[in-house]
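Translate sequence into structure tokens.
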Amino acid sequence: MVGRVFFTVLALVLATAAFLGADPSPDVNLFGVVFLFFAFVAWFSWSDIQAGYAYQAERREQSSTTIPLMLVRLGPMLIRELVVRKRRKT
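Result follows.
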């Protein structure tokens, strides 16, 4: 809960700073709108953000695979790097 409040308040402070420090001539300050969107996402989707960084045991989900989560996330990138290295050597 502390992280949720911290990141929401941080995004709201940045949005306020963007709106107050902006030139009054444009109709919409896009940086302020983006930071307001980040505050919205941080407040209403915090459980999804936490689930994305949680380990499988913490989520208490049964899985039939024994592949670590980081290998699943980073595997395609690592394979691409290996293929590029092989092409450079030949």
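Note: The two ends are 53 Å apart (CA to CA).
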